[in-house]
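User: Please fill in residues for this 367-position structure.
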C-alpha cells in the first residue's frame, strides 16, 4: 500500500470519528468527565499498586477517597452558597428597581435625541442581541444535555472512571499493539509528548484555578461585595477555561457592585480586583505553574473555545484547550517533517546547510 493510500485511509477514519463525536455530542459529557477523572487518577492508582494493592483494589480505594474529598468540599461550600443565594433573592427587587431607575433617564435621553423610530430601532437591536445571546447560551446548555441531567452525570461518570482506571494499563498495551510497525516509534514519541503536555496543563491549570478562586473569593468579600465569595470561587473554578473565568466573574462582580454601592470608588475596587487577578494569572501563576505546556498563541486558544462551543456545546468548551494542545503537538510534528521533506527543500540534500530563513546554497541569499 502506497503512502498516499495510507494517508487517505487515516483521513477517512479521522473524519468518521469526528462525525460520530458530533452526532453523539449531547451524551458525551459523563464519558468525557469519566475519562478525564481516570486520566488524573491513574498515577495515584499506579502508586497504590506499587504499595501492594491489586489494580482493582487500588482503583476502588482511590475513587472512594476522591469521592469523600469531593463530598467534603461540597458540604463545606453548600451552607455558604445557600446563605448568599437567600441574600440575593432578598436583594433582587431592590437591584431591579435601581437598574430601572438608572435606565429610565438613559432611555428618555435616547428617545429625545433619536425620536420614537430611533428608540424602536435601538430596542430592536437590543432585542436581537439578547436573542442571539440566548441562542448561544441555549446551544451551550442543550449541547451539554448530560449536564442538565445531574443524576446521569453523578452516576455514569464514576462508573466510566472505574472501568477505565481498572483497565488503563491493559488498554494502553492493547492499543500499542495496534500501531503500524513502521511508524510505531514515531507515534509513541508523539503520544509521550501529548501525555506530558496534558499532564502539565491539567496539574498547572488546576493550581491556577485554586489560587485564583481563593484570591477572588477573599478579595471580593473584603471589598464588601455581597455574594463576593460565591462569585470569586465560581470565577476561579471556571478559569480552567482560559479567559472565561475572569470575563464572566468580572461582569457579574462589577454589575453587582454597580447595583450595590453608591460610590464609584467601590465599583473601581471590584474592577481592580479582577485587573490584579488577570495580571497575577498572566505574569506569575500561568508562566510558573503551567509554563509552556500548551504552547499556543492566545488567539488560537480563543478560536478553539469558540469552535468547541459551536461544535459540541458545553463539552466542547471544556475540552477545547486540551484538544488544541494535542493538535498543536501533532501540527508541530507535521511541520518538522515537512521542513525536512523534499516538498520544502526543493531537492536540497539534508546534509546541506540551510540558514534560518530557509535559504539554501543555490538560492540568491545562500552563502
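Assistant: Residues filled in for all 367 positions:
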Amino acid at each position: 500500500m502506497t503512502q498516499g493510500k495510507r494517508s487517505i485511509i487515516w483521513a477517512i477514519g479521522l473524519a468518521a470519528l469526528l462525525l460520530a463525536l458530533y452526532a453523539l455530542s449531547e451524551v458525551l459529557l459523563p464519558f468525557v468527565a469519566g475519562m478525564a477523572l481516570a486520566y488524573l487518577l491513574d498515577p495515584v492508582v499506579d502508586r497504590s499498586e506499587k504499595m501492594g494493592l491489586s489494580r482493582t483494589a487500588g482503583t476502588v480505594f482511590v475513587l472512594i477517597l476522591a469521592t469523600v474529598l469531593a463530598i467534603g468540599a461540597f458540604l463545606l461550600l453548600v451552607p455558604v452558597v445557600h446563605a448568599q443565594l437567600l441574600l440575593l433573592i432578598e436583594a433582587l427587587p431592590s437591584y431591579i428597581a435601581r437598574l430601572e431607575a438608572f435606565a429610565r433617564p438613559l432611555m428618555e435621553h435616547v428617545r429625545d435625541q433619536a425620536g420614537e423610530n430611533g428608540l424602536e430601532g435601538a430596542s430592536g437591536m437590543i432585542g436581537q442581541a439578547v436573542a442571539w445571546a440566548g441562542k448561544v447560551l441555549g446551544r451551550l446548555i442543550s449541547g451539554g444535555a448530560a449536564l442538565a441531567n445531574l443524576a446521569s452525570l453523578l452516576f455514569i461518570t464514576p462508573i466510566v472512571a472505574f472501568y477505565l482506571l481498572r483497565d488503563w494499563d491493559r488498554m494502553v498495551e492493547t492499543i500499542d499493539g495496534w500501531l503500524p510497525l513502521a511508524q510505531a516509534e514515531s507515534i509513541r514519541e508523539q503520544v509521550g509528548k501529548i501525555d506530558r503536555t496534558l499532564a502539565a496543563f491539567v496539574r498547572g491549570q488546576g493550581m491556577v484555578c485554586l489560587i485564583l478562586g481563593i484570591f477572588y473569593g477573599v478579595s471580593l468579600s473584603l471589598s464588601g461585595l455581597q455574594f463576593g465569595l460565591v462569585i470569586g470561587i465560581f470565577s476561579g473554578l471556571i478559569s480552567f477555561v482560559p479567559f472565561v473565568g475572569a470575563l464572566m466573574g468580572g461582569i457579574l462582580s462589577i454589575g453587582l457592585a454597580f447595583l450595590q454601592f453608591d460610590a464609584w470608588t467601590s465599583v473601581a475596587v471590584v474592577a481592580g480586583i479582577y485587573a490584579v487577578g488577570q495580571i497575577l494569572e498572566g505574569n506569575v501563576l500561568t508562566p510558573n505553574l503551567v509554563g509552556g505546556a500548551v504552547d499556543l498563541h492566545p488567539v488560537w486558544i480563543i478560536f478553539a473555545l469558540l469552535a468547541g462551543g459551536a461544535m459540541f456545546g458545553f463539552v466542547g468548551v471544556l475540552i477545547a484547550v486540551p484538544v488544541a494542545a494535542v493538535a498543536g503537538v501533532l501540527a508541530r510534528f507535521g511541520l518538522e517533517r515537512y521542513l525536512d521533506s523534499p516538498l520544502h527543500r526543493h531537492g536540497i540534500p539534508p546534509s546541506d546547510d540551510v540558514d534560518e530563513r530557509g535559504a539554501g546554497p543555490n538560492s540568491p541569499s545562500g552563502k
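For context: Residues 143-147, 352-367 have pLDDT under 50 and may be disordered.
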